[in-house]
Design a protein that fits this description.
Layout lengths: L1 E2 L6 H5 L20 H18 L4 H42 L2 E3 L7 H6 L15 E3 H6 L5 H29 L8 H8 L10 H16 L7 H16 L3 H4 L2 H20 L2 H12 L5 H21 L23 H31 L6 H16 L3 H4 L2 H9 L33 H24 L9 H25 L4 H4 L11 H17 L3 H11 L5 H18 L4 H9 L16 H4 L12 E2 L3 E2 H10 L4 E5 L7 E6 H14 L8 E3 L6 E2 L7 E2 L4 E2 L4 E3 L4 H11 L3 E6 L2 E7 H11 L11
Parallel strand pairs: 4-6, 8-10, 12-13
Antiparallel strand pairs: 1-9, 2-3, 5-8, 6-7, 7-11, 13-14
Helix pairs in contact: 3-8, 3-9, 3-11, 3-13, 6-8, 6-15, 7-24, 8-9, 9-11, 11-12, 11-13, 12-13, 12-22, 14-18, 14-19, 14-21, 14-23, 14-24, 15-18, 17-19, 18-19, 19-21, 21-22, 21-23, 22-23, 26-27
Family: Belongs to the chloride channel (TC 2.A.49) family.
Membrane topology: Multi-pass membrane protein
Keywords: Antiport, ATP-binding, CBS domain, Chloride, Endosome, Ion transport, Membrane, Nucleotide-binding, Repeat, Transmembrane, Transmembrane helix, Transport
């Protein structure tokens, strides 16, 4: 027997793995990353850079560049996300108006821009100018009458169908991942799951283009959720330019968390709300350093959007409001009622939408995505056109519902009966009796509300980009405005009632219906997404209504309590579970008294655990084991008799290591011994060269004993982001628990189908 280390030229052969080789440390598609391993690799990289920086000026400069690369990436993400959001806003304005008419002086102008440039516009008819012509005026020279109405109606439907068909076709052909909101998948990716291509360049391009098309088509969806996906695509693209992020999946996710904040920042003009949204709703791992960088990315994105000025009002906020009266304590009751409505609407929406999406996945309906989009678009356009509140874009609708009725407002909602003797300043108009315009607007809003509630259930989840923030806010704003007008009229006609007597005297401006719309919007958005802190901050940044934080907080909290009474899941978590993604939610509680031995594999009656031994298996044995199983990795033990645990080897790295050894080194053949120890085993003379694979061995795999409570195991998986942990007793290997096993066990304990967890 001779020591293999004495063989001629074998030293460099056995240790060739001490140098890194391509693709080690990367993960396969639809698999979970190992957070601890990524953290450890980043620490090693940082230590190496720090020690090298003392060797020369050049190495010191390189270490500074490495330290600043994170801020550079944030700057680039903010600039690109802000630019794309500005372009999307401008394009949506133009294409939405294109369904109704065209600007003759410059066809690329929207209706508003066209009449801005006109010298023949009066204040009363500021939406009418000779440069802007409806399609009926352009084609048959008629602006009024039945034939003009029918022609405009027909062309409105045709444009909507054209935009929707183009969008769904682009998504199907070029980027299937560009559909949906993107937030459920972003949450899953940030928790450590790999979905290759989901944040790719094609997805970025197609999602940006199709987002403009679908929002312009008039479908009941928003662009805010997809803008988070677009910003994360920007983050992924810029991460790939810096090796610090491209080679470390854990570091890449820090960038994506900040990108999500930039996405919300440009979607709502709410940089602080964006950071809080990323922290509360999207991110899984959010260290303090990421908080600062998220803040910087959101700042740059908001600044870029403000420079583009897509709304033309020199404001960053989408629905700027200026109310002239404070709110009163007695109004908390209707605000809380709106919170209850928001919670009930959220529960109804989630249950109905998930049932419809499940039906789409499990029946023939899912085979015809283009037909589904065309049918829903046609129904939406046909029903939406006759009602002025559903015909216009949802953002414009919300803006009108939030507005206070000033003396210069021409909206139907402001058609009050004025006192001819009124001599008050313009800003302080007292409560007045509702005129015929307000009553007809109430009927139209009630019909629009029912339509929005129903159609949004079927629209969200189709194979097109679709956000949920704006439709949810529209539902709440319509309900809120109607409640606000009701309270206002009650206060006017019954100001002697005890609840109004103290704060609402005759001739005073007591109730602001626009505020009720704002509170209702927050309540419905909270009911669907279960956001609280970030929601309130987004709402006051969105509207500029800083003094109305308490009503917003009351509605958001009530909405969450009511919705949580029917089920803890928000819409994004529900879609994650529907798709079977391995997402271990930090908010979920596990209170069952089971043990690790109840969950670990192998269970009784199953084949023994597939393991590698430290120095007694050949290359052929390892390759056969890999071929016959589909496990992600294998525990390494001293021997099959002792089963003393040494470490854990990943499947992918074993395959790459053996493949590289066969290509780069002579003497590695099928019956070469594979060893994971520091020193080679003693082998007979004339044995083929052994293969040392110690470098790919994880010598400190996470282990628990078989009697560890599952409550503790779930907590460990959640907080450390583990892929798997090994179960031992007195150092002997008993089994393995993977993230998939944990999720299936949790589903089983919650009386759900454990087979719904499909990925590793």
């Amino acid at each position: 027997m001779v020591n293999a280390g004495d063989m001629n030229g074998s030293g460099n052969l056995m240790d060739f793995l001490d140098e890194p080789f391509p693709d080690v440390g990367t993960y396969e598609d639809f698999h979970t990353i190992d957070w601890l391993r990524e953290k450890s690799r980043d620490t090693d990289r940082h230590r190496k850079i720090t020690s090298k920086s003392k060797e020369s000026i050049w190495e010191f400069i390189k270490s500074l560049l490495d330290a600043w690369s994170g801020w550079v990436v944030m700057l680039l993400i903010g600039l690109l996300a802000g630019t794309l959001a500005g372009v999307i806003d401008l394009a949506v304005d133009w294409m939405t108006d294109l369904k109704e008419g065209v600007c003759l002086s410059a066809f690329w102008y929207s209706h508003e821009q066209c009449c801005w440039t006109s010298n023949e516009t009066t204040f009363d008819d500021r939406d009418k100018c000779p440069q802007w012509q409806k399609w009926s005026e352009l084609l048959v020279s008629q602006s009024e009458g039945a034939s003009a109405y029918i022609l405009n109606y027909f062309l409105y439907i045709m444009w909507a169908l054209c935009f929707a068909f183009l969008a769904v076709s682009l998504v199907r052909v070029f980027a299937p991942y560009a559909c949906g909101s993107g937030i459920p998948e972003i949450k899953t990716i940030l928790s450590g799951f790999i979905i290759r291509g989901y944040l790719g360049k094609w997805t970025l391009l197609i999602k940006t283009v199709t987002l403009v098309l679908v929002v312009s088509s008039g479908l009941s969806l928003g662009k805010e959720g997809p803008l988070v996906h677009v910003a994360c695509c920007c983050g992924n693209f810029f991460s790939s330019l810096f090796s610090k992020y491209s080679k470390n999946e854990g570091k890449r996710r820090e960038v994506l968390s900040a990108a999500a904040a930039a996405g919300v920042s440009v979607a709502f003009g709410a940089p602080i709300g964006g950071v809080l949204f990323s922290l509360e709703e999207v991110s899984y791992y959010f260290p303090l350093k990421t908080l600062w960088r998220s803040f910087f990315a959101a700042l740059v994105a908001a600044f870029t959007l403000r420079s583009i000025n897509p709304f033309g009002n020199s404001r960053l906020v989408l629905f700027y409001v200026e109310y002239h009266t404070p709110w009163y304590m007695a109004e908390l009751f209707p605000f809380i009622l709106l919170g209850v409505f928001g919670g009930l609407w959220g529960t109804l929406f989630i249950r109905c939408n998930i049932a419809w999406c499940r039906r789409r996945k499990t029946t023939r309906l899912g085979k015809y995505p283009v037909l589904e989009v065309i049918v829903i678009t046609a129904i939406t356009a046909i029903i939406a056109y006759p009602n002025p509140y559903t015909r216009r874009s949802t953002s414009e609708l919300i803006s009108e519902l939030f507005n206070d009725c000033g003396a210069l407002e021409s909206s139907q909602l402001c058609d009050y009966i004025n006192d001819p003797n009124m001599t008050r300043p313009v800003d302080d108009i007292p409560d007045r009796p509702a005129g015929p315009g307000v009553y007809s607007a109430m009927w139209q809003l009630a019909l629009a509300l029912v339509f929005k509630i129903v159609i949004t259930i079927f629209t969200f989840g189709m194979k097109i980009p679709s956000g949920l923030f704006i439709p949810s806010m529209a539902v709440g704003a319509m309900a809120g405005r109607m409640v606000g007008i009701g309270v206002e009229q009650l206060a006017y006609h019954h100001h002697d009632w005890i609840i109004f007597r103290n704060w609402c005297r005759p001739g005073a401006d007591c109730v602001t219906p626009g505020l009720y719309a704002m509170v209702g919007a927050a309540a419905c958005l909270g009911g669907v997404t279960r956001m609280t802190v970030s929601l309130v901050v987004i709402m006051f940044e969105l509207t500029g209504g800083l003094e109305y934080i308490v009503p917003l907080m009351a509605a958001a909290v009530t909405s969450k309590w009511v919705a949580d009474a029917f089920g803890k899941e928000g819409i994004y978590e529900a879609h994650i579970h529907l798709n079977g993604y391995p997402f271990l939610d930090v908010k979920d509680e596990f209170t069952h008294r089971t043990l690790a031995t109840d969950v670990m594999r192998p269970r009784r009656g199953e084949a023994p655990l597939s393991v590698l031994t430290q120095d007694s298996m050949t290359v052929e044995d390892v390759e056969t084991l890999i071929k016959e199983t589909d496990y992600n990795g294998f525990p390494v033990v001293v021997s099959k008799d002792s089963e003393r645990l040494i470490g854990f080897a990943q499947r992918r790295e074993l395959i790459l290591a053996i493949k590289n050894a066969r290509q780069r080194q002579d003497g590695v053949v099928s019956n070469s011994i594979v060893y994971f120890t520091e020193d080679p085993p003693e082998l007979p003379p004339n044995s083929p060269h052994p293969l040392k694979l110690r470098r790919i061995l994880n010598l400190s795999p996470f282990t628990v004993t078989d009697h560890t409570p599952m409550e503790t195991v779930v907590d460990i998986f959640r907080k450390l982001g583990l892929r798997q942990c090994l179960t031992t007793r007195s150092g002997r290997l008993l089994g393995i628990i993977t993230k998939k096993d944990v999720l299936r066990h949790m589903a089983q304990m919650a009386n759900q189908d454990p087979e719904s967890i499909m990925f590793n």
